[in-house]
Amino acid sequence: MLFKLAFQSLLSRKYTVLLTVFTLVISIAMLFSVNHLRTQAKASFERNISGVDLILSSRDGDISILLGSVFHLTPLQGSVKWSTYQHFNAHPLVSWAVPFTLGDSHKGFTVVGTSASYFEHFQFGNREALSFHEGQPFSYQSEAVLGHKVAKQLGYTLHQNIVISHGTGSVSFSHHSDHPVNVVGILNPTGTPVDESIYVSLATIEAMHPAATQVTTALSRIGRKTNTSSSKTASQSHHDHEHEHEHEHEHEHEHEHEHQAEQVTEHHATTPTKISGIFLGLATPIATLRLQNEVNQFEHDAVEAIIPGVALNQLWQLVATGEAILLVISGIILISSLFGMATMLLASMKERQRELAILRALGAGPKTLFIMLQLEACLLSIFSIIVAYALVQGILVAVTPLVATHFGLYLSPVIAITDIVLMGAIVLGMTALIAILPSISAYNQALHTSLSKR
Q: Where is this region: Disordered (predicted)?
């Protein structure tokens, strides 16, 4: 009976009620949106990497290593010796080790030099393995695997040649045009930075960046041999036959050294001296801290190891302040809207004196009128919560694909029921608390009406 009375009372003031509902819907929708984005953003951060126990890199700090190696947002300042990779790859506690090197790009997308075992061991989300939409992992030098977003946005297909650029900027003036790579695989979407990366072998990266010192040394040897052969030929110029024979011999010797120089360059191209870091999977997770301590105290290279989960928590703590500020702002807006509702109910008290008198004449006591005002306020909030939920849900369904395409952020289009129940209970609790003022006003007016009748 009271529910019906409260509902009919609200209908009699429909225009004022609609304006109040509108402000409540906006504030509640903002609260739902901020909470959903907060939880989804954190989940998105956490799904970027899994199954990797340690990330080994130069001593740049936990967050810098994480941002550089996983998110490709900042460059890794130092490097890791190849001998360090060989040492820990053979470590008894290590189950697998995947080296990687960064520093190149293609049209703004990060190029990662690594081994084919990357596609076998690197995981994301809830230990989900990488899978191929088309093609296969690279097997030879000058082959590349594209992330899903790279292939989709640039319109690349299998067996297409692309040119990698030096540096990580979106615009580069140094291109490795003499070493084009052939696309042999395209990965399925993951919702992680993998989608925005291009993967090539370490040999490909080394071929694009040959060591000038080794090449120069080889060429200088050739020059010394050539000068020596020329002096010997000049001193024996009176022997025509011997001169021709010596010239042929030195010519063959020179070609032999040129071939040796090519072998030096090719050998260096396939064996890097330095890399950016190593992803490590351990034979037993309980050895994580032990190996991390061993890496941090490694004497032969200035390296450190980070635990991805710990670094992710540190990273999230950096943005926790902004997250809290957004929630506080949403809460303030909601409280303002609820006070607006209370003001509306209070302002209507004078207009409802006749209504209250009739209800008193019909036997409604002050407590009954108090409860009826509380019901009116709660009905407004419940209706606003339902409309706000429908509004946010519709926006998420429409916007989620666009956000994934343009920003690489995969949001769930469905708000968790537990979040709705929790936030709805908070809103209703605040409503009942703030509605005490108009409810007390109705109670007092009911007592005044009763006393004046006497």
A: 221-269
Q: Decide if 158 is inside a domain.
A: yes
Is 395 found in the same domain as 342? yes
Does residue 328 share a domain with residue 429?
A: yes
Report if residue 108 sits inside a domain.
Answer: yes
Cβ contacts of residue 204 below 8 Å, gap of 6+?
113, 141, 142, 143, 144, 179, 181
Domain interval for residue 433 = 2-46+318-453
Q: Does residue 311 lie in a domain region? A: no
Q: How far apart are CA 3 and CA 379, in angstroms?
A: 9
Between 194 and 285, the more confident residue is 194
Q: Is the pLDDT of residue 346 over 50?
A: yes
Q: Taking the model in full, what pTM does it have?
A: 0.69
For residues 182 and 94, membership in a common domain is answered with: yes
How far, in Å, CA of 393 to CA of 31, rounded? 13
Contact 17, 6 (CB under 8 A): no
In this structure, the chain runs to a length of: 454
- Of the candidates 322, 345, 319, the residue with the CA atom closest to the CA atom of residue 438: 345
Domain count along the chain: 3
pLDDT (tens digit per residue) in 46-72: 788 888 999 999 998 899 999 999 988
Phi-psi region of 186 (alpha: psi -120 to 50; beta: other; left: phi over 0): beta
SS3 28: helix
CA angle 267, 272, 273 (to 5 degrees): 110
**Cα 114 off chain centre by:** 20
| Averaged confidence pLDDT in the chain | 79
- Residue pLDDT, tens place only, 412-442: 788 888 888 888 898 888 888 887 877 776 6
- Give yes or no: residues 230 and 145 share one domain: no
Task: Please report the beta strands in 42-146, taking only residues with DSSP state E, as ranges in sequence order.
Answer: 54-58, 80-81, 94-106, 109-114, 123-124, 128-129, 132-135, 143-146
Count of other CB atoms within 10 angstroms of residue 271: 11
Q: Which helix (H) or strand (E) holds 39?
A: helix 14-46
Q: How far apart are the C-alpha atoms of 48 and 432, rounded to whole Å?
A: 42
371 vs 2, which has greater pLDDT?
371
Beta-strand pair 161-162/181-187: antiparallel
